[in-house]
Specification:
Layout lengths: L3 E5 L8 H12 L5 E5 L5 H7 L10 E4 L7 H6 L7 E5 L8 H7 L3 E6 L3 H20 L4 E6 L6 H10 L15 H8 L12 H19 L4
Parallel strand pairs: 1-4, 1-5, 2-3, 2-4, 5-6
Helix pairs in contact: 1-8, 4-5
The structure holds adenosine-5'-triphosphate and magnesium ion (MG).
């Protein structure tokens, strides 16, 4: 079996790319061997995994490949037979060649998006990126993942606008919750945090289910 590849990308900084990558990696680890490719020179995913305690290591392997730049896809191909799932955590930069390269070998692009006006305005750049990548990689599927969703009608309004955007939204949404920040601090995922992270675990599991459903339809 060769790995299914999921790239998590958005040119907007701080929208939750690393959070989505790492939480999904934790969930996917129950379904197979998982590699997180840290394609961001900020190395947030690498530091995250390194913050794990010795008795509870991060459940997936994290490897730093930001330096590969436009050749990232070639590097990622080397891991195809060793893993069942590869998640590529992209940098936020508009100029970086990394997302384009990652999308060349991806089955699925996930675009975390905060339902707020500035994030919506920035989304058009990412849509262009996905369109360009789709022209080179015909099978590429893309989904926007609403993240840090507030409990206000403003969030709903922006999500409503996004639904006509050309890239479908996942049904699952991640709300704004402290558990996600804590998981990063302790180098873990919400799944290991017990009852206090119950709501986060539930929504990550829904997202995971949706993504497994999409990936199961991908022929390889
Ligand atoms: N659903 C959420 N609820 C609360 N905090 C969140 C949520 N998602 C992400 N965060 C926090 O927001 C900050 C930015 O998230 P993250 O690092 O995942 O974004 P990013 O898109 O990877 O950022 P960058 O563009 O710098 O790589 C982090 O402190 C993270 O813990
Ligand atoms: Mg990041």
């Amino acid at each position: 079996m060769t790995a299914k590849i999921v790239t998590v990308t958005n040119q907007k900084g701080g929208c939750g790319k690393t959070t989505v990558s790492m939480q999904l990696a934790g969930g996917l680890a129950k379904h197979g061997r998982v590699l997180v490719v840290d394609a961001d020179a900020q190395a947030t995913a690498t530091r995250w995994a390194a913050s794990a305690s010795d008795d509870q290591p991060f459940p997936a392997t994290v490897t730093g490949l930001a330096a590969a730049g436009a050749k990232l896809h070639r590097e990622v191909r080397k891991y195809l037979t060793d893993y069942d799932f590869i998640l590529i955590d992209c940098p936020p930069s508009v100029e970086s060649p990394v997302p384009q390269s990652a999308l060349l070998v991806s089955d699925l692009a996930l675009i975390p998006i905060i339902p707020a006006p500035a994030d919506l305005w920035a989304a058009s750049g990412t849509r262009v990126l996905i369109e360009q990548a789709g022209a080179l990689n015909n099978g590429l599927i893309a989904r926007m993942v609403p993240n840090m969703v507030p409990r206000t009608s403003l969030g709903d309004e922006v999500l409503g606008e996004l639904s006509g955007y050309g890239i479908p939204l996942t049904q699952a949404q991640l709300r704004q919750r402290t558990a996600y920040r804590e998981a990063q601090v302790y180098g873990t995922t919400v799944h290991t945090m017990g009852a206090r992270a119950r709501d986060s675990i539930e929504e990550v599991d829904l997202l995971l289910e949706e993504i497994l459903g999409i990936l199961s339809g991908v022929a390889r």
